[in-house]
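Anyone up for a design puzzle?
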């Protein structure tokens, strides 16, 4: 059964402690959970085609409202069939609201009660994003999951600033919910904020839960905090969100953070690390990250990760990738992107298997120990 009749809902098939495994049902198909969403900010995953993403067993892609509103414009995406059809993906999609840009483009925006005014990063003209406008853009883009506009303050902001920001985020969430007209085909998720203050996190979770969104996100935990604080806040906040709804941890993160966050009850993740690190020749392995531009890989005939089944690991050696990296060849980043994305997706497959097997705590300890052992 869907939550409140919405076509996007979570089916929990197995729990192990607080860890959950099941499926996220959407109009474009069901994705097994816990899941990692590959980031396609401007309707493109850098370095991979939709066919390669399908081969890697990606299930959900994430795009960004702010960027798509600027180029090519939401009307163009909608006219061409919506986000999934526009990018040739045809699977489930999620769009961020533009709230992260309030943080990342702090020098180019002004936050007001009504919304946020951006001097956009392309030509400096104004983009006025309100909670209602963010919903309208995402409705036109036709993503399966839309996010409420929220303010994402820096992690180290003082309590008074975080409290003021939280009041604004909650007011915007109510306005977004009132503006949402497509509940028969799109879900709208609320975003819990509160920075590093547990009482504010509880306040936010309670306020948003009363609005009865189809799903909930934990925001503001990838904006400058240290690892210990990220894990503390996630472990505290996730159980406060409705247990029958999807829980999405925004922008996090490392394989280690994902493993720990699943143990706290999180179902959904996204992060730019797999693709961004690849563009700097950094590859993820079971024993941690390696930089394939390093001289030590000269003559190394092994694949990136001997435990990996991706196209890169089946096709090319570390020595060849070092050669491409030293030359700055585009294919170095492409090959490493293919591997990194598959590494993350394979990690999620292993996580789900461990939850279903009922040995998640043991799995998490062993995998964390392995990741900490040092890249080969």
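Challenge accepted. My sequence:
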């Amino acid at each position: 059964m869907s939550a409140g009749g919405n076509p996007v809902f979570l089916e929990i098939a197995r729990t192990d402690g607080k860890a959950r495994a099941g499926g996220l049902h959407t109009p474009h198909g069901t994705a097994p959970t816990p899941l990692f969403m590959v980031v396609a900010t401007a309707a493109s995953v850098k370095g991979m085609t939709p066919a390669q993403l399908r081969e890697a067993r990606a299930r959900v892609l994430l795009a960004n409202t702010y960027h798509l509103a600027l180029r090519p414009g939401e009307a163009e995406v909608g006219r061409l069939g919506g986000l999934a059809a526009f990018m040739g993906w045809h699977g489930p999609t999620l769009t961020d609201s533009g709230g992260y840009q309030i943080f990342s483009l702090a020098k180019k925006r002004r936050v007001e009660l009504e919304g946020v005014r951006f001097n956009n990063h392309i030509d400096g003209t104004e983009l006025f994003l309100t909670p209602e406008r963010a919903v309208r853009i995402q409705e036109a883009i036709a993503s399966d999951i839309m996010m409420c506009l929220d303010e994402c303050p820096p992690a180290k902001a003082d309590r008074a600033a975080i409290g003021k920001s939280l009041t604004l985020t909650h007011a915007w969430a109510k306005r977004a919910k009132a503006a949402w007209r497509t509940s028969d085909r799109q879900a709208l998720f609320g975003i819990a904020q509160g920075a590093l203050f547990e009482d504010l996190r509880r306040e936010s979770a309670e306020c948003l839960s009363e609005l009865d969104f189809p799903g909930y996100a934990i925001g503001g935990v990838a904006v400058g905090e240290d690892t210990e604080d990220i894990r503390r806040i996630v472990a505290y906040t996730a159980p406060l969100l409705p247990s029958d709804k999807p829980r999405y941890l925004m922008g996090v993160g490392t394989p280690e953070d994902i493993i720990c966050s699943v143990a706290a009850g999180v179902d959904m993740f996204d992060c730019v690390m797999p693709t961004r690190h690849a563009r700097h020749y950094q590859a993820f392995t079971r024993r941690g990250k390696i930089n394939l531009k390093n001289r030590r890989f000269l003559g190394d005939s092994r694949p990136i990760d001997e435990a990996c089944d991706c196209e890169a690991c089946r096709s090319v050696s570390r020595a060849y990738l070092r050669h491409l990296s030293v030359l700055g060849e585009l294919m170095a980043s492409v090959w490493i992107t293919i591997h990194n994305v598959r590494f993350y997706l394979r990690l999620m497959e292993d996580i789900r298997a461990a939850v279903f097997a009922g040995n998640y705590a043991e799995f998490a300890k062993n995998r964390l120990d392995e990741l900490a052992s040092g890249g080969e």
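A detail worth pointing out: DSSP finds 15 helices and 16 strands in the chain.
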